[in-house]
Design goal:
Pfam family, one: RibD_C
CATH topology of the domain at 1-17 and 33-141: Dihydrofolate Reductase, subunit A
Largest sheet: 8 strands, mixed
Strand content: 25-35%
Shape: globular
CATH superfamily of the domain at 1-17 and 33-141: Dihydrofolate Reductase, subunit A
Structural class: alpha/beta
Organism: Isoptericola peretonis
InterPro entries: DHFR-like_dom_sf, RibDG_C, Riboflavin_Biosynth_HTPR
Number of helices: 5
Protein name: Dihydrofolate reductase family protein
Length: about 180
């Protein structure tokens, strides 16, 4: 059975998107990006909302850049090898292999997908993840916290949800970014 993981870069005060400006430096640091690639190398399926898919589809061709460093090439190849499910009512077509579109998020279908999967899955993007969190589907939360406090925006955790979590791993990077991995109780 696969575990469902929700992970994003956040500001120190828990926002994935600031009302104004950036949430701070994140995965562009080669040390952090290499770590992210190692953590998610064995993901078998990515669950995306439309906006997150449109951001991540970059990886479909990133390995074609002759000047790309090894950690970028590896991440692109790992991403390309995984299945992708995009939840969207507006996306007409996808531009990556191993990708399908679902019009609605069905918690029971995701439960079945987890149960049938031999590899982990991720849910990416705060709007889609909020649905999975509310449905009790998320097994692990991976936060990559920047050193920036932004004071408002789109939050990592949805409002109105209480979670009791166990910290199972943490790491600080030279850039100041902190990684914290939590598991649901």
């Amino acid at each position: 059975m696969g575990q469902l993981v929700y992970s994003m870069i956040t500001s120190l005060d828990g926002y994935v998107e600031a009302t104004e400006g950036s949430i701070g430096a994140g995965a562009e640091d080669p040390e952090v990006h290499t770590f992210v690639g190692d953590v998610f190398r064995d993901v078998g399926t990515y669950l995306y909302g439309r906006r997150m898919y449109e951001t991540m589809v970059f990886w479909e061709t990133a390995d074609q850049d002759p000047d790309a460093p090894p950690h970028i090439l590896q991440y692109a190849r790992d991403w390309q090898a995984a299945e992708k499910v995009v939840y969207s009512t507006t996306l007409a077509d996808v531009s990556s292999a191993r990708t399908r579109v679902e019009r609605t998020f069905d918690p029971e279908a995701v439960r079945r997908l987890k149960a049938e999967s031999e590899r982990d899955l991720t849910v990416d993007g705060p709007n889609l993840a909020a649905q999975a969190v509310r449905a009790g589907l998320v097994d692990e939360y991976h936060l990559f916290m920047t050193t920036t406090v932004v004071g408002g925006g789109k939050r990592f955790f949805p409002d109105g949800v209480r979670l009791d979590l166990d910290l199972v791993e943490e790491r600080a990077f030279a850039s100041g970014l902190i990684y914290a991995r939590y598991r649901t109780r």
